[in-house]
Automatic annotation (TrEMBL):
This is N-acetylglucosamine-6-phosphate deacetylase. GO terms for biological process: N-acetylglucosamine catabolic process. Zn(2+) binds at residues 130, 193, 214. Substrate binds at residues 141, 217-218, 225, 248, 302-304. The keyword DNA damage does not apply. Binds 1 divalent metal cation per subunit. It comes from Kinneretia aquatilis. The lineage of its organism: Bacteria, Pseudomonadati, Pseudomonadota, Betaproteobacteria, Burkholderiales. NCBIfam families: nagA (TIGR00221). The active site is at residue 269.
Length: 376
């Protein structure tokens, strides 16, 4: 019989913080015992008591630990091991725009990692297909291989590895109808790498698009007479990604988005350079340079990030968010967006995915589906 494991801490539950004990067995939370405490008590009470939050969920990961999703081979395993050591307990491997045969090759390699979580790694929930179905005029750091989308082609890719999220530019011909078809089949769709208008964004949401890819970046901006795609998001979205590395988006713009979009959540958009020293790395077909905390193409364009989700949490709290609110934005809201009722929250029956932090929000431990991760 499997024995019950437990941790004593200040534990964030859906109802708020509880000072007590979390029990887990066979990879699932079995019980939480204790008494409610306020956020102020959690942050300021004396003692060595640790803080337990739901494990982080990142739906936009290109790489880490020197490896890139588009490499194929065992890259996904190394990427998962890097990010789990920064508290990400589940994630989506994210593609780059590339020739179709390269995307097929990458997904073929990702399929087995999606089917079976490797020990010591984050759970790979599936694939975020960020390219190639984007506007060639809003590539950002994506290589220039954008192409029109077809349902048959997406089905063929989905057969190689489970596609959970697809970024589309709604202004492209036929895309609005495709969004409705994809949503009817259970795919989540979000708007990104788009030169579309405010009206295009509103129509995409009406056709079933669920959110926006890295809000503000690689999309038409907000002007008071042409509100653009950013305006559509701020006026109408419930969900949107944002990259809180404080390079991609000004802190003031992050605050605007949090006031306007109730369930805005964080992603890293991390590259192979995450967790690595300064130098050159791959991002799909591109060579990018990590320096001064960022990742850029030779022309200076930001090309993904080096962000990890534990730093994203600290950045949000540094902007003035309560820990509970910041936790939802690095975990619960992404889980809700992806329809994951048993992740992103600590309650009986949920997966035992959690992070252990000290009072400075420095990572002390990570548990994924009941497995204690070696952070060394």
């Amino acid at each position: 019989m499997t024995s019950v494991q437990h941790i004593d801490a200040d534990i964030l539950t859906p109802q708020g913080f509880v000072r007590g004990r979390l029990d887990y067995v066979e990879g699932r939370v079995s019980a939480i015992h204790g008494s409610p405490v306020t956020e102020s008590q959690v942050r300021h009470d004396a003692g060595e008591r640790q803080i337990v939050l739901p494990g982080f969920i990142d739906v936009h990961v290109h790489g880490g630990g020197g490896r890139d999703t588009m490499e194929g081979g065992d890259a996904a395993g190394q990427i998962g091991r890097l990010h789990v050591r920064h508290g990400t307990t589940s994630m989506l491997a994210t593609t780059m725009t590339a020739p179709l045969d390269e995307i097929r090759s990458a997904l073929s390699a990702l399929g087995p990692f999606c089917a079976q979580r490797a020990p010591g790694s984050a759970r790979l929930l599936g694939v975020h297909l960020e390219g190639p179905y984007i506007n060639p005029g809003k590539l950002g750091a994506q290589p220039d291989f954008a192409k029109p989308a077809t349902l048959a082609e997406i089905h063929a890719l989905h057969a190689l590895a489970p596609i959970r999220l697809i970024t589309l530019a709604p202004e492209l011909p036929g895309t609005l109808d495709l969004i409705a078809e994809l949503r009817a089949e259970g795919f989540q769709v979000q708007i990104g790498h788009t030169a579309g208008t405010y009206e295009d964004g509103v129509q995409a949401l009406q056709h079933g698009a669920g959110g926006f890819t890295h809000l503000f970046n690689a999309m038409s901006g907000l002007h008071h007479r042409e509100p653009g795609m950013v305006g559509a998001a701020l006026a109408h979205a419930k969900y949107a990604e944002i990259i809180p590395d404080l390079l991609h988006v000004h802190p003031g713009a992050i605050r605007v988005a949090m006031r306007a979009i109730p369930c805005m959540f964080c992603v890293t958009d991390s590259t192979a350079a995450a967790g690595m020293p300064d130098g050159e790395y791959s991002l799909g077909r591109h060579r990018v340079t990590k320096c001064m905390g960022g990742v850029r193409l030779p022309d200076g364009t930001l090309a993904g990030s080096t962000l990890t989700m534990d730093q994203a949490l600290r950045n949000l709290v540094g902007l003035g968010l309560e820990i509970e609110d910041a936790s939802r934005r690095v975990s619960t809201f992404a889980a809700d967006y992806m329809g994951l009722e048993d992740r992103g929250r600590l309650q009986p029956g949920a997966w035992a995915d959690f992070v252990v932090l000290d009072r400075d929000l420095q990572l002390q431990g990570v548990v994924v589906e009941g497995e204690k991760i070696d952070l060394a």
